[in-house]
Specification:
This protein has 17 helices and 14 strands. By secondary structure, the chain is an alpha/beta fold.
Length: about 425
């Protein structure tokens, strides 16, 4: 087997995100795959209220359109199945429309969908799950006969349960065990994640040993639109960006501490700005309280929901990206900044060192004064631009995995 195989792509996570705002890193991976598969032979699998749908390729452009916020053509209200499941809003209306498009539907375990999919796809097709969603043991077992490929973005819920929502570590452990026990191939997005996958399947006593391959995820440098920057953002002073959900592992407390340290060192007129761009997450009440207490004239500004074009325009003008995370499986903001030559200050996590090498300045996640010193130094001059490392594209990422699927399990794929 060497020809590119047909793919059955699971889009359950992406559909669940319709109408919820800007995509997260994992969402972007699923969306990129959906776009990449458009000209290739494929079908889609999607979990809906109390069931599973097998979808034709034509459903893909509709899902991508809905994700971008274009809800034209969606039913005005959800169907009875979604209403019975107490679902509402755009995602429920999208699920209703997907039921209309479906080639076949089944219960939660997807019984019978594999047989229908095999009638529509050539021999050697692969099931691809890149979203950490719909990893149901009965579903994966029923897909035997497909090459079952599962991507694991990180093992943070196992490594650091203290940084997760209540119950998330237990749910992730169940999904992880399902994937490790039934997948024919495992894809990691970094060598650091691959090492943790190997570590945890040993710790959890998983005897099945599916091969693990690393494929760095792609980075898209969205065209900048300065006109999309909020008008209340004062860009007359040096400014820095923090991108991502405001959750404990992102360590926003360090940044707030650093700006307090800067305020003790610098006159008010010399204070740089900090734009914290991301929605509020969970278990972070102290940080939320500190943000809520910021005065109107604070140099620290929190904002959620900015369009990608506005973030890109800010990135192009920023003095640096700040990422003091306690844990990351990859970190797309790092490559988005490096791709534009923007200086990066981040913690020395294995994934960050793997993808950025010596491009970034690495600082410990508790070293407030060190962060303040480096931020002050960068703020003293005009924004500098550097020569960044080679960054993976979505095309190279997808082609690497598709080449892998054209080889026997464990046979590897040419770089």
């Amino acid at each position: 087997m060497s020809a590119d195989p047909a793919i059955l792509l699971d889009v359950s996570r992406l559909v669940s995100r319709i109408g919820t705002g800007p995509l997260t890193g994992i969402d972007r991976v699923e969306a990129a795959w959906l776009s990449h598969l458009a000209p290739r032979e494929h079908l889609l699998l999607c979990r809906v209220s109390r069931g599973q749908l097998l979808l034709p390729p034509e459903a893909g452009p509709a899902i991508l359109r809905w994700i971008e916020g274009d809800m034209a053509g969606l039913p005005a209200r959800p169907g009875w199945r979604e209403r019975l499941a107490r679902r509402s809003g755009p995602v429920a209306c999208a699920m209703t429309d997907l039921r209309r498009m479906a080639i076949a539907s089944a219960g939660r375990s997807g019984t019978g969908l594999a047989e229908v999919a095999r009638r529509h796809l050539p021999e050697g097709a692969a099931y691809l799950n890149v979203g950490h969603a719909n990893l149901d043991r009965r579903l994966l077992a029923g897909l035997k006969g497909f090459r079952r490929v599962v991507m694991i973005h990180d093992t943070i819920p196992l490594d650091h349960p203290e940084y997760t929502r209540d119950g998330q570590s237990e749910r992730f452990r169940t999904r992880f065990m399902t994937a490790m026990s039934l997948a024919d191939q495992v894809v990691a997005i970094s060598d650091a994640t691959a090492a943790q996958i190997e570590l945890w399947r040993g710790r959890l006593g998983v005897t099945h040993r599916a091969p693990i391959v690393t494929a760095h995820i792609g980075t898209v440098l969205t065209p900048a639109d300065p006109g999309a920057i909020p008008t209340d953002f004062d860009l007359s002073r040096p400014f820095f960006l923090s991108l991502g959900t405001i959750e404990p592992r992102k360590n926003h407390a360090l940044l707030l501490d650093a700006w307090e340290a800067l305020a003790r060192r610098l006159p008010e007129a010399g204070m740089p700005r900090l734009f914290i761009l991301g929605r509020r997450g969970w278990n972070n009440e102290q940080v939320f309280a500190r943000l809520d207490r910021l005065p109107e004239d604070s140099p620290v500004i929190e904002r959620a929901g900015l369009p990608d074009a506005a973030v890109a325009a800010l990135m192009e003008r920023a003095h640096g990206l700040l990422m003091p995370s306690h844990a990351e499986g990859y970190g797309l903001p790092l490559t988005e900044a490096a791709g534009r030559g923007v200086p990066v200050l981040c913690t020395p996590l294995p994934a960050a060192r793997e993808i950025l090498g010596d491009y970034a300045t690495y600082l410990q996640p508790e070293a407030v004064e060190d962060w303040a010193t480096h931020i002050a130094a960068l703020a003293q001059s005009r924004p500098i631009r550097m020569t960044g490392p080679k960054i993976a594209t979505w095309d190279s990422h997808c082609k690497r995995i598709i080449r892998l699927l054209g080889h026997p399990v464990g046979g590897g794929a040419a770089e």
